[in-house]
Design a protein that fits this description.
- There is one protein chain.
- By secondary structure, the chain is α/β, with parallel strands linked by helices.
- It has two domains: 217 residues, 3-Layer(aba) Sandwich (Rossmann fold); 114 residues, no CATH class.
- It is built from eleven helices and 15 strands.
- Strand 14 and strand 15 form a beta hairpin.
- Helix 1 packs across helix 10 and helix 3 runs antiparallel to helix 4.
- It is globular and about 60 Å long.
């Protein structure tokens, strides 16, 4: 073991790590998610991160990754984590002072899952890895800042902030809180590779690429569709930006709508998607036409690609479970960028 992935999920970190030649061992409690990881070739310990002992891991972990479940802090959920923030802050301070009060604090939380956000600090303090990388929804940033101060107190260089995954090649404007820490090198954020509209080359180097769009990755560039079939005359001709494997006679300029409210976000195919949510809103992530007429729900393969996974990634479980795994996963392009920013600390692990 060299890199340990807490709350490993279906393999977002794992897939991103492979891009820079690093393999990890994940801890994941969900049986179906473990099946996905196994099918994708990711090594997994099926266990509860909150009760798994750190003693057997001493001297074996050089890098630590953690993306605790975000449902209690997400804007798509009930946001019970907001009520539990003081207890989470207390849990961080208690761990830093050698007091494990997690059991009592968990009982006091509105949602016990909120306290999972303190687990990476427990592992970091016990195992002292060379580097740490954490990811969560933006609402968790104050807890990451607190964690960073505690890690700095034991010798880590740290950085915390909000990154937009679209700036690193994901066709989705997904904003995430990030914590980076290193005992051996300065912790710095990754340099963006893309920007909204791109930037021109200048005297200091090559400009940034434009944000990738849904059309870029779904294989559906604007084209002319002929509805006359095999007939030589008649029929209609019109442009479409619909996904190439799903174009029908109703094809128009498609938009992706995320949410059921009248104010739900709508994005054209020549734009990145908005943040994809697949909890209770799963059935409301759908293609519509320019008039707002529903066309169909977002397909599983489309969701996977928009989250940065291969279209044929081996998701296990029911349709609902598969979509949930996609929505909860760290986008692999963001994972690659974040871990690349810890180089050479991260890359020395691979070597």
């Amino acid at each position: 073991m060299s890199v340990l992935d807490l709350f490993a999920g279906p393999g977002g970190w794992s897939t991103g790590l492979r891009e820079i030649g690093i393999r990890e061992v994940g801890i994941e409690i969900d049986a179906t998610v473990c099946q996905t990881r196994a099918a994708a070739g990711h090594t997994t310990i099926r266990a509860n991160v909150a009760v798994y002992p750190t003693a057997p891991l001493l001297g074996k972990v050089s890098g630590l990754i953690g993306s605790a479940p975000c449902q209690t802090f997400s804007t798509a959920g009930l946001r019970a984590g907001n009520d539990d923030l003081p207890l989470c802050h207390q849990g961080l301070d208690d761990l830093a002072h050698g007091h494990d009060t997690r059991a009592a604090l968990r009982v006091a939380c509105t949602d016990p899952r909120s306290l999972l956000v303190v687990e990476p600090l427990r592992y970091a303090l016990d195992l002292r890895p060379d580097w740490v990388a954490l990811e969560q929804v933006p609402a968790v940033l104050p807890l990451f800042e607190h964690t960073a101060r505690l890690l700095a107190g034991v010798g880590y260089s740290t950085w915390t902030g909000i990154l937009n995954a679209a700036d690193f090649g994901l066709p989705q404007t997904r904003r995430r809180a990030i914590l980076l820490a290193s005992r051996t090198h300065p912790a710095l954020p990754p340099e963006p590779t893309h920007a909204d509209g791109g930037t021109p080359d200048d005297l200091f180097g090559t400009g940034l690429l434009p944000w990738r769009t849904m059309g870029d990755v779904l294989g559906c560039p604007p084209a002319i569709v002929h509805t006359r079939g095999n007939h030589t005359t008649g029929g209609s001709r019109f442009p479409t930006t619909g996904p190439s494997w799903a174009v029908t006679g109703r094809a128009r300029s498609w938009l992706l709508k995320v949410g059921s409210r009248p104010t739900a976000t709508r994005r054209r195919l020549d734009q990145p998607a908005s943040t994809l949510l697949f909890g209770k809103a799963m059935n409301h992530v759908a293609w519509i036409d320019a008039d707002g007429t529903p066309i169909r729900r977002l397909a599983l393969e489309e969701a996977a690609v928009l989250q940065g996974f291969p279209a044929n990634y081996p998701w296990a479980g029911s349709r609902t479970k598969q979509f949930q795994q996609i929505g909860n996963a760290v986008p692999p392009p963001l994972a690659t960028a974040v871990l690349g920013a810890l180089a050479p600390a991260a890359l020395e692990v691979a070597a």
